[in-house]
């Protein structure tokens, strides 16, 4: 029997790495992506790694008719991994309606069609952003920590989407959902054939670091060294994208094999270790041998001082652990940047 998974947003950064892991575990995959933030050539990368090409449909998840056709064309879909969303925090402040429309409507469309076509399992990409700055007694942050009022429309879409899934599960007894709250995904596939493809000037730390090392940016600006942390720079839980991708396979397996204990299960996906911006810079320089030009500047508005995960629940219940050493992760990011820029 085919185990087919519909992966929305599957040509994106985390989606493409997840498609690779799914296919390597014997799953059939159909990707739906409107290529609003990814490139069709990602499929070549996936094929080169796996030796097979996933099915691909260029469609918008908000388009009910197009999505209905996908479910009709692939009646063997057993579960959905829903990555498709717009994800730039700053842009969401500029264009809130786009974020609310895209991120809400794509999820509700997928959930409606799952009910219609009797597909019962969904994995949803949520984010540590739902916790905001956790109170000191909640660090490291586990799944019981309260969600804080979102600081951006993007963050709000994640909270509302989590609530939509809860409400739909309440109304639809057959639905099983896994909400994965990612911390800071970084790095690229060890083959350097797929990785992150940021649009324009990167907002996130790692692509900025690798682009600076590659000479595309003059210098990295480190946003603040006066935080209440050991070296004064912000602390995050940087998780390797391949480890993260594997968690999705664990989550789908767990639901398909009927092992879930609650209708909606929530997991924090992080390493359990916080690293500062300056530690990332130093380690990157060490492992790549690249001198990174950087300058300390003022704090970035809206930045959280420190957050890292307590991943115990994912470790014990999902049987998953993010254990790739940070040195290997940073090297993978650099190898991907070199591949993109043809640097030897
Ligand atoms: P990404 O932009 O690389 O991938 C998202 C993909 O979805 C893109 O290929 C884009 O073209 C597609 N897409 C967007 N809207 C669509 C729509 N309406 N219909 C069809 N396709 C659509 O982003 P990513 O980093 O891979 O993130 C994947 C998911 O994980 C997102 O939901 C994001 O919010 C979430 N997330 C990401 C991070 C992170 O730091 N990267 C952290 C936490 C959560
Ligand atoms: C990491 C650290 C910056 C760039 C964002 C989203 C969040 C989630 C993950 C999706 C911070 C510092 C960065 C630079 C810097 N995404 N930095 N110079 O802010 O933790 O979270 O991605 O759900 O919702 O907000 O990630 O990579 O932007 O920043 O000093 O040029 O690097 O201040 O401390 P962040 P980031």
Could you describe the 3D structure shown?
This protein has 344 residues and is of the alpha/beta class. The chain has two domains: 4-187 and 239-269, Rossmann fold; 205-235 and 272-341, UDP-galactose 4-epimerase, domain 1 (Alpha-Beta Complex), CATH 3.90.25.10. It is built from eleven helices and 13 strands. It has helices at residues 13-24, 42-50, 64-73, 89-94, 96-116, 153-171, 205-213, 241-256, 277-288, 312-318, 326-341; strands at 4-8, 28-33, 55-58, 77-82, 121-127, 176-182, 184-186, 220-223, 235-236, 238-240, 264-269, 275-276, 294-297. Strands 3-2-1-4-5-6-11 form a seven-stranded parallel beta sheet, sandwiched between helices. Strands 7-10 form a two-stranded parallel ribbon. The model has no long low-confidence stretch (mean pLDDT 97). It binds nicotinamide-adenine-dinucleotide and UDP-4-deoxy-4-formamido-beta-L-arabinopyranose. UDP-4-deoxy-4-formamido-beta-L-arabinopyranose binds at residues 87, 89, 127, 129, 184, 203-205, 208, 220-223, 234, 236, 277, 300, 303.
């Amino acid at each position: 029997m085919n185990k087919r998974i519909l992966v929305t947003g599957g040509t994106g950064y985390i989606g493409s790495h997840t498609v690779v892991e799914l296919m390597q575990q014997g799953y059939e995959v159909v990707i739906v992506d409107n290529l609003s933030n990814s490139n069709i050539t990602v499929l070549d990368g996936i094929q080169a790694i796996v030796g097979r090409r996933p099915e691909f449909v260029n469609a918008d998840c908000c388009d009910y008719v197009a999505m209905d056709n996908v479910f009709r064309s692939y009646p063997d879909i057993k579960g959905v991994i829903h990555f498709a969303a717009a994800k730039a925090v700053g842009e969401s402040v500029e264009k809130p309606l786009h974020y609310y429309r895209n991120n809400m409507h794509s999820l509700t469309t997928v959930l409606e069609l799952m009910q219609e076509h009797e597909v019962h399992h969904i994995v949803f990409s949520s984010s540590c952003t739902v916790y905001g700055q956790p109170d000191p007694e909640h660090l490291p942050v586990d799944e019981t920590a309260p969600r804080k009022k979102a600081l951006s429309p993007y963050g709000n879409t994640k909270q509302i989407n989590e609530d939509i899934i809860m409400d739909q599960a309440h109304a639809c007894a057959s639905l099983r959902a896994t909400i994965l709250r990612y911390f800071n995904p970084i790095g690229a596939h060890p083959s350097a054939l797929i990785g992150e493809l940021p649009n324009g000037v990167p907002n996130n730390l790692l692509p900025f670091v690798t682009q600076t090392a590659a000479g595309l940016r003059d210098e990295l600006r480190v946003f603040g060294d006066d935080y209440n942390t050991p070296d004064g720079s912000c602390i995050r839980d940087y998780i390797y994208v391949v480890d993260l991708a594997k968690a999705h396979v664990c989550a789908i397996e767990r639901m398909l094999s009927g092992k879930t204990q609650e209708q909606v299960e929530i997991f924090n996906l992080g390493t359990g270790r916080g690293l500062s911006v300056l530690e990332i810079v130093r380690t990157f320089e060490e492992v790549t041998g690249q001198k990174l030009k950087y300058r300390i500047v003022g704090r970035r508005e809206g930045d959280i001082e420190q957050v890292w995960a307590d991943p115990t629940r994912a470790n014990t219940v999902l049987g998953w652990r993010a254990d790739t050493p940070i040195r290997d992760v940073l090297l993978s990011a650099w190898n991907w940047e070199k591949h993109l820029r043809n640097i030897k």
